[in-house]
Amino acid sequence: MRYQDEEFIATSDLLFEGVLRDVRKSREALQPIYEALTNAFEAIKCRIDKDKTFHSSNGSINIVIKAQATTDVDNPEFSSISIQDNGIGFNDEDFKRFNTYKDFTKGFSNLGSGRIQYVHYFDNTRIISVFREDELYYKREFTVSKRNEYLKAHNALVYHKICAKTDDENIGTLLIFNGLLENSKVYNDLTANILKYDIIKKYLSYLCKHRDTFPRISIKYEVNGEERDEQNITKQDIPSIDKTDYAVLHYQKIAADGKSYEQLEKTEKFTIDSFRISNGFLTQNALKLTSKGVIVNESPIVLQNLASNTSINGCKYLFLVSSEYIDKQDSNVRGELKIPTKNNAIKGDLFDPEFITLDDIQESVTTKIDSMYPEIQKKKIEVANQLEEIKQLFHYSSADIEDAGININDSEDKIIEKIHEVESKKGANLDIIIKRSYDSLKSLDTSDANYEKTLKQKTKELVKAIPLRNKNALTQYVARRGLLLDLFEKILGKQTDIQIANPDKHREDLLHNLFFHQHSEDSINSDLWMLNEDFIYFNGISEALLSKVQIDGENLFTDEFVKKEDEYLTSLGEDRTKLRPDILLFPSEGKCIIIEFKAQEVNISKYLDQINKYAGLILNYAQPKYNMSVFYGYLIGESIEPRDVQIADGHFENAYQMDYMFKPADIVRNFFGRPHGSIYTEVIKYSTLLERARQRNRIFLEKLNMIKH
Length: 709
Hints:
The structure is a single chain. By secondary structure, this protein is of the alpha+beta class. The chain has four domains: 7-237, Heat Shock Protein 90 (2-Layer Sandwich); 243-372; 402-492; 506-696, no CATH class. The protein has 21 helices and 23 strands. It has a nine-stranded mixed β-sheet with strand order 1-6-5-4-7-3-2-8-9. It has a seven-stranded mixed β-sheet with strand order 15-18-19-20-23-22-21. It has a five-stranded mixed β-sheet with strand order 10-11-14-12-13. Helix 13 (398-404) crosses helix 14, helix 14 runs antiparallel to helix 15 (451-492) and helix 15 runs antiparallel to helix 21. The longest helix has 42 residues, at 451-492. It is elongated. The relative contact order is 0.06. Mean pLDDT is 83; it is low at 107-111.
C-alpha cells in the first residue's frame, strides 16, 4: 500500500478520541522515550536479521536532549529530545503497522499503542526515516500529534508528509519529540547522565542478556545549542548476571464449582536472573517482573526474602523475572500487566480462561530465591526470629500477626502499628456484641417470674464478652509500659546507643520525646502517664511556638499577641512570642498545665521562674473566652539541690513522700485590670518519676496476675 504525500492517516472504523480515553497516559513520565527506544532496539534487530552484511556492531542509537535557558543558565527548561537509530527504517509495511491500532504482527508482542504515549506527552513527534526497498532508497517523513487539525478535523493522529526516492543511503530513523504538553520536573531535570542510568535500570534485563551485542548508545545534552555533557552506554556499565534459575508453573482454570482451581498439564517457564550489585549502583533490594526485556517499574510482586534496605557484604540484590507468559499479559499501556490474582480470578475478572496467577509466581519465585542464596535465607530467618520476639514480648497471637499482613520491610514500629490496627477492628466487633448484651439487660422486666434467672444468664454473657475485648489489649498496654520504663532507665543511665556514641552531649530531647514527642499534638498516644495518669486525656501540644498554639483548631492567643503589637512582648530586645514551652496541656476551661524538661546535668534552681513567665504570658494574652487563670507547673530535671531551690525561691517546700519539691500557690499577675491567676508548681527528679511510674505499673501487673506478690 502506497501512502499519499501530505495526507492525514484517517480510519473509518476507529474513533481516535475514544482510543485516547481507552489508552490512558502512562504514570511513568519517560514512557514515550522508552517506547521510542524499544522501537529502535527492534528496528536494529530487524535489520540484522534481514541484512546479513549489517552486524550488531553496526547498530547505534544516538539521543540528544535539548534545553533552553534564558535568564538563569543553571536552570534550563526542556526543549526537545531526539532518538536516532540505524535500524531497518519505516518501509510501507512498517508504516502501515505503525498506523494500525493494536497491530501485533511485528513479532515483539507489540500492540501498536506506543504512539498514543507520544501524543499524551508531546505536542508533536516528528519522524524522518530512510529505508531500502528493491535496491532503491526512500525517505519518509511524518508527524504524530493530537492537535485539533489532526484529531477533530481528520480523526487522525498521523500526518504523512512525504515518501520519495533519495540519494541518502544512511538507513535508519530519526524521531524528535517537540513541545512538552505539561511542564515536568522530570524532563526539566533530564541530563545525559540521568537518562543514561534511567535507561540502564529500565533495560537492565535486555542489556545483560545482550551484553556483547547491544547497540552503541550515545546520549548528548545541549543547552542553547551548546553541548554540556555526553555519555555512552557500554557493556562496562552493565552489571553481570550473578545467577540464573528457573521456575516452571502450571496453568490453571476455574473449576466447575466456580470456587476452586483446576491445575492443567500445560506449563510455562519463568526465568529468574539475579544480580549482586554494589550499594553505589543499586540503592534497594528488589524483585521485578520484566516485559519484553523492559523492567516493569510498578511490579505486582515484591521481594519477600530480604528487606529493601538490607546490604549483605556491601551488596544489594536485584531479581528480574521474565517469561513469554508475562510478555503476553502486557496491556495497551506498556508495563501495566493483566496477570490475575487468585482473588480476582475467582471473581471472574479474567482475560483468559487458562491462567497463571501472581500469587503462584510470587510463591514460586520466593522459594527459588531462598535456594539461590543461603545468605538471604539466613537473613530471612533472623527477621522471622525478630518478629517472634515482638510476638512474645507483647503477647500477640499468630492470628493477629497473619491478619496484619506483616512484610519483611516493616520496621518494629510498623509491625506493632499494623497489629494494633487489626486488634482495633476486632475490638470494634466485640464492642458491638457487648453493646447488644448491655441493651438486652436494660430491656428486662423486673416483675417477670423468670427475671432473676434471665438476669443471671444475660450478666454471664456480658461478663464473658468483656474479657475477650480487654484482656489482650490491657496485657499489651502494660507490657509496653514496662518497655518504656526500661528505656527511661537506660536514658537516665546514659546507656542508649546515641548517648554512648556521644557521651559529652546533653540530650534533653531524648527525655522530652520519651514523654511526648516534640511538635506533636497527639497527647492521647503520648506517655505522659509516667508523670500523671490523667495527662494523656487532655488536649495538648509539645514543643510549639506560643504564638502558634491552638485549642480545638483555634488560636489560644489574641491577634495582638500573634502580630506582636504589644510593646512588652518585644521590650528589652527580646521576642517573647518566640518562646517554646516544652509541653502545654489544657485539662478544662480556665486551666493550663505547663511542663518543662531540663538536661540531667542542669541545675534546676536556675530555671525556677521559667514556668511562671509562660503562665504570665498565657494569662495576659490568651483569648478572653478561654479564661486562663489556674496553672500547674512541672519543672523536671535530675540535678536538684533542695537548698539551692529554696534559696532561689523560699516558697518551695519539701514533699514528705517521694522525693520532690512543691510550691502550693503563687500569684500570676494580670496587667490589664482582670483578676490575677494562681499557679501550683512541682520541681521533681526524673529518677523520682521513674520510681513513681514503676510502682503504678507494678500495681497493674499485680491486678492482672502477671507477677507474683
